[in-house]
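Reopening this ticket.

The earlier resolution said the output was attached, but the attachment link was broken on my side. Pasting everything inline this time so it's all in one place.
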Amino acid sequence: MSTISKILITGGLGFIGHHLAIKLSKKGHKIAVLDNLSRPNIIINKSSETKKKNYNWEYLDEFYPNIEKKIFDIRDKEKVANLIQDFKPEIIIHSAGQTSAVDSIENPSFDFENNMIGLFNVLNSAKECHFITDFLYISTNKVYGNNENDISLVEGKTRYIPENKNFKGFSETSSIDHSIHTPYGISKLAGDLYVQEFGKIYDMKNTVFRLSCIYGDQQFGIHGQGFISYMFLNASSGKQIQIYGNGKQVRDILYIDDLSDLIERYLSKTSSLKPKIFNQKSRVYNIGGGINNTISLLELVGRFESILGKKLKLEFSNWRLGDQKLYISDITKIYSDIGWEPKITPELGIEKLTKWIETNKNLFFN
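Inline output:
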């Protein structure tokens, strides 16, 4: 990455894209964010009136007016191509798309159009532009499906535990076959493979980051996506917390500041590599908190109870289709390549997130 780069972030008013835009703008880069505003960050109920707002839009307007905002849908091929030609980004970070596995089951067509057609429009336009030096695709651990055939587990009191004591997490070579993925997992996997293939065939410098659970301040969690913030919102407002399955599901979690630091560092570290050299090694990485930053749903509830000083009400329901009983990222490869590892522990990260929600209750409860 040159001293000052032009960077286009799709989905740039979403949780991840918004944070990346701020991080990279602070480093002096010229940033444009593209979003269709399909999901308001805040829904405020005042008496009988419901008002929808986009907190991230207003936040960037107030504090980072130098970040350009482009509002249209990535499914519009012509507008995507025109934006790339007009803005001429050196780097594209593709974080746009449909993000809920649950919603993808209910509406697979919407998921496909956003995660496949939308990605293809951006990727294919990037392929034609000599000025683009890096294409970073934000993928997901859901490409591995429910992985129940790939690991033997022991059921503990509050979590599932790998039978193999030397288990470090799922690596980038873990199986993507013979499991249930949900349409979301399949659309992200197909996009993941397209990005890899375009890199090899068209001499593009493409990278795939398969993310585990990302959380942090300014996250407006909803049912089916952003579970830590969503569960705490319910807990702090006195609502029941819905648990699908037995609550012993384990995830590695990564605070958004750690992810932002990683992406800025990665782009800087690989900026001098030419595509042919770059593509000699597969640039696919599992990104998350890793084996040292894990939590189960029951353990998360326990942490909320300590923070709030009260017992929380739980309601258990059937397992969700394709849910992973345990997913932990093996982050050995990214550490080996650029020396990155998470700094923010779950204890600190959850405290930071819950404090932000408590401080900004006016955004959620009226």
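Reporter confirms the inline version is readable. The chain has twelve helices and 17 strands. The longest helix spans residues 108-127.
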